[in-house]
Amino acid sequence: MTAQTSATSGDGTSMPSWLTPASYWLPAHFVDSAWSTHGSFAAWIVDVLRPRDVIELGTHNGFSCFAFAEAAKRMGHSITIHALDSWEGDDQAGFYDDSVYLSVRATAERDYAGSVVLHRGYFSETRPEFAAASADLLHIDGRHGYEDAREDYEQWRDTVRDGGVILFHDIAERREGFGVWRLWEEIAEPGRSFTFEHGHGLGVLAVGDIAQEPLRVLFDADAGVADRIRTDFERLGAVIAEMARIPHFEAEVASLHDVVDMLQTERLRLTEVIAAQDRSIASLHGSTSWAVTAPLRAASRMIRRDR
Q1: HSE value, Cβ hemisphere, 13 Å, CA-based, for 137
Q2: Is residue 265 in a domain?
Q3: pLDDT level of residue 304 (50, 70, 90 thresholds)
């Protein structure tokens, strides 16, 4: 396949056929997330697929969920995103208190009340609430062991309508305890799947007929074009990841300001201590006892010289 320019970015420059103007958008919510480098793809897939219903297995602090929701909001596209999580953590992501859930709920209610629905609980318990062929986009990002990922895929894949897409996060993560890569190798098909390797990896899998031309460009890409697609989305995602780090930099700067203030306070205290000591010495030198004992100090110095 030969890459062809088919669209124009917001600044008027041409771009390849696998990008859309939405690819250049920035999320409205930046949080610490392993998904941040896929923020551009989140906007792209919503733009291209125009999903009516999304199911997300594993929402955590909400980055991917809100990236989908924000893209739809900017497009004026009606969408319902079902975000599923226990919001208690696990032995891979770490355990946490209710503050994460409360933060996600507050953002959902404030900014996406008509499009984001939170489902707190375990995936298998929530599964009966969803009918077959009830979603256009399924995002699997729960526990990352092989058996866990396969269970999520097998239990939830029939919720995706013909023409829909399933996303798998962490397909490039091969540390101990991670096995999504193994599942991905078993189910990815040439012409029906695409693999992003950055940001711990993101697998894109077609379900049924592929109706949208940009998706066909993605799935039919030869090795050279596929590398260019990966490079472009990694570059765009890196911008989002850097912006997501800004609050951390601001917190670090604020912390350094606190340290500087503390050191300044300590310096002033020590300066006052030294000044008080100087005043004491000056007072001593001007005292009667100092004058009376002057001959003794002089004699002591002469004795030391004689030795």
Answers
A1: 28
A2: no
A3: low
- Residue 54: which domain range? 18-245
Q: Which of 38, 124, 137, 123 is nearest to 87 (CA)?
A: 123
Radius of gyration of the chain (CA): 31
Q: Coil, strand, or helix at residue 17?
A: coil
CB atoms closer than 10 angstroms to residue 57: 24
- CA 279/CA 237 separation, integer angstroms: 63
| C-beta neighbour count of 247 within 10 angstroms | 12
Residues 6+ apart with CB under 8 A from 166: 137, 138, 139, 140, 153, 157, 160, 204, 205, 207
Question: Mean of the pLDDT values across residues 254-267?
Answer: 60
Domain count, the chain: 1
Q: Cα(56)–Cα(64) distance, rounded to whole angstroms?
A: 9
Which amino acid type is present at position 23? S
* Whole-number average pLDDT of the chain: 87
Task: Give the strand pairing for 135-140 and 160-169.
Answer: parallel
- Residue at 252 is within a domain: no
Output the domain CATH number for residue 176: 3.40.50.150
Look up tokens 């953590």; give the residue: 89
CB-based contact 161:133 (threshold 8 Å): yes
In this structure, the number of other CB atoms found within 10 A of the CB of residue 21 comes to 15
Residue 154 covered by a domain: yes
Angle CA 168–170–171, to nearest 5:
70
CA torsion angle 142 146 149 152 (round to 10): -130
In a domain, residue 131? The reply is yes
Is the model's pLDDT at 227 over the cut of 50?
Answer: yes
Helix axes 99-111, 63-75, angle to 10 degrees: 0
Reported as a single tens digit per residue, the pLDDT across 93-135 is 667 789 999 999 999 999 999 999 999 999 999 999 999 999 9
